[in-house]
Specification:
Elements: E1 6-12, E2 19-26, H1 27-37, H2 41-51, E3 65-68, E4 71-74, H3 96-111, E5 116-120, H4 121-126, H5 132-136, E6 142-144, E7 150-152, E8 161-164, E9 167-168, E10 191-195, E11 210-214, E12 224-233, H6 238-241, E13 243-256, E14 259-271, E15 274-285, E16 290-320, E17 323-346, E18 351-353, E19 356-357, E20 364-389, E21 394-420, E22 422-425, E23 433-436, E24 453-454, E25 457-479, E26 482-506, E27 523-525, E28 529-531, H7 537-546, E29 551-553, H8 555-562, E30 567-584, E31 587-609, E32 615-640, E33 644-655, H9 659-662, E34 666-669, E35 674-677, E36 685-698, E37 702-714, E38 717-723, E39 733-739, E40 744-756, E41 767-780, E42 796-806, E43 809-818, E44 821-824, E45 829-831, H10 833-836, E46 840-842, E47 845-847, E48 850-860, E49 865-872, E50 880-884, E51 891-896, E52 900-908
Parallel strand pairs: 1-4, 8-11, 31-34, 35-39
Antiparallel strand pairs: 1-2, 3-4, 5-10, 6-7, 8-9, 10-11, 12-13, 12-52, 13-14, 14-16, 15-16, 15-51, 16-17, 17-20, 18-19, 20-21, 21-24, 21-25, 22-23, 25-26, 26-29, 26-30, 27-28, 30-31, 31-32, 32-33, 33-36, 34-35, 36-37, 37-40, 38-39, 40-41, 41-42, 42-43, 43-48, 44-47, 45-46, 47-50, 48-49, 49-52, ...
Length: 909
């Protein structure tokens, strides 16, 4: 007689956090019951659970089920299942996988003993985000910063730690400790956590928190395979960016009850082109006081092409109910090719009046500048560990290795035509017109490129490699009302930085006419500024590389720019912690302390120039130090009726100084009696943090959260210039870096809401909503100013999304908006006549409001295949304005980027 297969039904109770119940029923009996009752599987399983006394109306669990290979997985354990539709009319079947991803993210947040936000891979796919950077922007408190960097809670770019399943990545910064979070594909991870309050068992070097990339798959999870292929692009810039592509494969399986494996591959090409107009306004006095003048107008086109190739592997073996072993690894390769092409008209301080130049006889100029930045990032992270659950003790330990290598090369090729006079019209301050008056120009307004002569070229090579070797041991002693946990870890790291900056002049005169141009490379920037030709930068780079023997290099400039930024940093950080968790009814108290001791050695270079400014020699320097830091931590969680959490936390975090600032370099300039020095004794920036969060978990997979946070930061690293007195350098000026005395405060509010609107009538029950809003306020004092804001963040950020799921169809439209951003602060004042009649003001630089609209669509053509498509940056034609001091003043830069699209097919099994 053939053995009947069985269905295993799991329930994850939200207030327990582990698989604690299991029911087995015969599959034939279940199918027979289904056919007789005519009800859906989900409803039947809920009835069975209620009748078994396993669930009641107060548990607050949203139940969904999936069937795969004879297994029914219920609740949050269904997170890796793909439910194939039994018929065309099952309206839940299409979005069940997405629903499970949302549930998994909510459960991770709800069951955590830390304040954090979570987004699942299913959600980020709906948002059409390629990289981790794009995905985390949908979370409260996160803003986009510089390329590949984010700003969490306004603390600053890169002031966060990045881990994969808890293991720390190597830094990818060019001399600093930042991490290019845009380098990793969102296809390589299962969930993304932004942990905003750390625990004592976590590295404290995360001023704003930790971004943790989750790849782990629990033992016993069901088999799942998905593969996706697609492509797209940005039509307006096809000539320069080409088509984008995306291929991804992810496989999850537990071939045995005691073993699971995860395997993933991802390849992407991604393009972010835009066009821009740079405008440099200044002042001049023609006898009646200062007035506004135009110093330069520079239209251009910018392309940012990325390719990402990555893979991950994770295996878990559970030798018994009490022991498991884990092996995981992630490999990632990222190339970023950034090109910028600018035409520029410069007055050269040669004004006759506001409307023309020529007073000094043709000091104006016209230039074409082409730059290429090629950045290759290679990342490895491998970890092996084990967990043992003994009668009175839980033990876990692991060892790991992580490496990040970044090879950054920058080429600049400028062309120039001098001794020009111009007519100037800036009645339309957003579209000033500058025309040369003493040369012939073409009918299209272009200048003969045979007149543009090649100037000194620039080639920068910046190579860094960061190695981390880590190990940790954690011991947890559970008792009736909680647990006591203690442990330690070691992080042995070495970062090597090599930097060269070379100014080169070709020994023969060359004009732009001799260079290869992009075929069909002509463009109208902002529709008004014609660029008739664009240099092919790949061929221009080959020209520089192959003709290097024919280049003249100024050795004095080379050593002045390069030598001091070469370093080696050896940091050994040893940590220990103790943490007590105590539960009294619905109240959970967590408290502890972490101690981190570091032994550090930094190697730098000493560069000497004589009294004539001539380079003499470079020698090596070394400095060592050690320091110890203590990090107290206290957190309270109160569970209100199983559906709400109130969280309160106090913690302390740090940001260690950048590697290149701590190197003991020294540049001695006898000609100018000037010293430039690093400071290996710099202390970390410290933040004392207070957090409060209220979370309400709703039926229909929903959550409302409101939180406030307060940070007090101290020990900022600032440049310090002083005149020395006494000793060998008496009367010399010294520029170095020190920890400043100024403190800063940052506080804000985070609010979020997400829910399926199944309580609405008719087709509206297929809708869902995702929304969050963040307000951030910051202030600190500088040497010259008081109560200024932190650069790099906006006070207001909002994300909204309207989701639709019904049968074979799904759709989502999402909107990201942030208010204006203070980009840079100025330490000195300047004249601004159009603002205040010629008074001195601080010309701080701002970026205007930014918004990003995305729409995605999906259609299931069978139980295994789904078509998908999305349109992004639907507001791309809108111009973004960067300005000085106030938006009432003249713009500094206007940018525009076009909309793009992607489409493809997804296979699931």
């Amino acid at each position: 007689m053939q053995e009947q297969s069985r269905i295993s039904l799991y329930l994850l109770r939200s207030n327990v956090g582990e698989n604690n119940m299991k029911i087995e029923v015969q599959k034939k009996m279940l199918n027979k019951l289904l056919s007789k009752t005519g009800c859906s599987r989900v409803l039947l399983y809920m009835v069975m659970l209620f009748s078994a006394g396993l669930v009641n109306a107060n548990t607050g669990i949203d139940l969904y089920a999936a069937v795969s290979n004879g297994n029914v997985v219920q609740g949050a354990e269904a997170q890796d299942e793909q439910l194939a539709p039994d018929n065309e009319n099952d309206k839940r079947s299409f979005f069940l996988t997405y629903q499970q991803g949302v549930e998994r993210a909510l459960n991770r947040r709800r069951e955590s003993d830390r304040i954090k936000s979570v987004i699942s891979s299913e959600q980020s796919a709906r948002f059409a985000d390629y990289s981790i950077e794009g995905a985390v922007l949908r979370l409260p408190g996160v803003q986009r910063g510089e390329t590949g960097k984010i700003n969490i809670r306004g603390v600053g770019y890169g002031k966060y730690n990045v881990t994969v399943d808890g293991q720390r990545f190597g830094s990818t910064g060019l001399g600093d400790r930042s991490f290019d979070i845009g380098s990793i594909s969102a296809d390589l991870v299962r969930d993304i956590e932004v942990i905003k309050v750390l625990r004592p068992d976590m590295h404290a070097d995360g001023l704003a928190g930790t971004v943790n990339l989750v790849t782990h798959q629990p033992v016993g999870g069901a088999r799942r395979l998905n593969a996706s292929i697609g492509g797209g692009g940005t039509p307006r810039y096809f000539t320069y960016s080409g088509l984008a592509s995306n291929v991804a494969l992810n496989y999850y399986d537990s071939p045995r009850d005691d073993f699971s494996i995860v395997f993933g591959l991802s390849y992407q090409t991604d393009h972010q082109p835009s066009e821009m107009l740079g405008i440099d306004y200044g002042t001049a006095d023609f006898g009646n006081g200062p007035v506004d003048v135009i110093q330069q107008v520079a239209p251009g086109i910018y392309t940012n092409q990325s390719s990402r190739l990555g893979g991950r592997l994770q295996m878990t073996y559970k030798s018994s109910e009490r022991t498991s072993y884990n092996l995981q690894g992630l490999v990632n390769f990222h190339n970023r090719d950034i090109q910028r092409h600018n035409n520029s008209w410069s007055a050269g301080s040669d004004w006759f009046n506001q409307d023309s130049t020529g007073l000094a006889g043709g000091l104006g100029s016209y230039g074409y500048d082409a730059t290429l930045t090629d950045m290759d990032i290679t990342q490895y992270a491998f970890n092996v560990g084990a967990k043992h659950r003994l009668d009175f003790l839980n033990v876990d330990y692991s060892i790991g290795w992580a490496q990040a290598t970044i090879d950054h090369q920058h080429y600049s090729i400028p062309f120039l035509l001098e001794r020009l006079n111009h007519e100037i019209n800036f009645q339309n301050r957003n579209r000033p017109v500058v025309k040369p008056t003493n040369i012939n120009i073409g009918q299209d307004g272009s200048i003969d490129r045979r007149l543009l002569r090649l100037q000194d070229m620039d080639h920068i090579i910046d190579f860094h490699i960061d190695n981390h070797y880590s190990g940790n041991l954690n011991l947890e002693f559970p008792f009736r009302m909680g647990s006591f946990k203690l442990g330690g870890d070691a992080l042995i790291s070495h970062k090597d930085g090599a930097f060269t900056a070379t100014d080169m002049r070709y020994i023969r005169p060359l004009t732009q006419f001799r260079f290869f141009m992009v075929q069909g490379g002509r463009f109208d920037v902002l529709d008004d500024y014609h660029m008739p030709w664009i240099v092919d930068m790949e061929k221009a780079r080959n020209f520089i590389d192959t003709n290097e023997p024919l280049m003249r290099v100024d050795e004095n400039v080379f050593h002045r720019r390069s030598d001091v930024w070469n370093y080696d940093a050896y940091e050994n950080i040893y940590s220990g912690y103790g943490m007590l968790t105590f539960e009294v009814g619905n109240l959970t108290l967590l408290g502890g302390v972490r101690i981190e001791h570091s032994d550090n050695t930094y190697d730098g270079r000493k560069v000497l120039f004589n009294q004539f400014g001539t380079y003499l020699e470079t020698s090596d320097t070394t400095s060592s130090n050690s320091n110890t830091h203590v990090f107290p931590n206290a957190q309270i969680t109160y569970d209100i009726g199983g559906r709400s959490n109130i969280r309160l936390a106090w913690s302390r975090t740090i940001a260690r100084p950048d590697f290149n600032l701590m190197a003991p370099f020294e540049r001695i300039d006898n000609q100018n009696m000037a010293l430039f020095r690093g400071n290996p004794d710099l202390e970390p920036v410290t933040s004392d943090n207070l957090d409060f969060m209220f979370e309400l978990y709703l039926p229909n997979t929903g959550m409302v959260g409101v939180g406030v946070f307060y940070k007090e930061l101290s020990g900022f690293i600032v440049a310090d210039e002083q005149t020395l007195s006494g000793g060998d350098f008496d009367g010399w000026s010294e520029l170095s870096f020190v920890n400043g005395d100024e403190a800063a405060t940052i506080y804000g509010i985070e609010a979020s809401w997400q829910q399926n609107l199944t309580f609405l009538p008719g087709f509206l029950e297929n809708l869902g909503v995702y929304a969050n809003y963040t307000y951030i306020h910051s202030e600190f004092d500088t040497q010259n100013r008081t109560n200024v804001s932190f650069p790099g963040h906006s006070p207001h950020v909002m994300n909204t999304a309207l989701i639709y799921n019904q049968g074979r169809y799904s759709g989502q439209i999402s909107y990201h908006w942030r208010g204006k951003v203070l980009q840079t602060l100025q330490d000195t004042t300047s004249l601004a006549p159009s603002i205040n009649g010629g008074q001195q003001v601080y010309m701080d630089r701002y970026r205007d409001n930014f918004d990003y609209l995305t729409a995605s669509l999906g259609f299931r053509i069978s139980s295994n295949f789904q078509l998908w498509g999305n349109v992004f940056n639907m507001t791309g034609a809108r111009e973004r304005i960067h300005y000085d001091n106030t938006s009432d003043y003249y713009p500094r830069e206007i940018t525009r980027s076009g909309f793009g699209f992607r489409a493809g097919i997804l296979y699931t099994l």
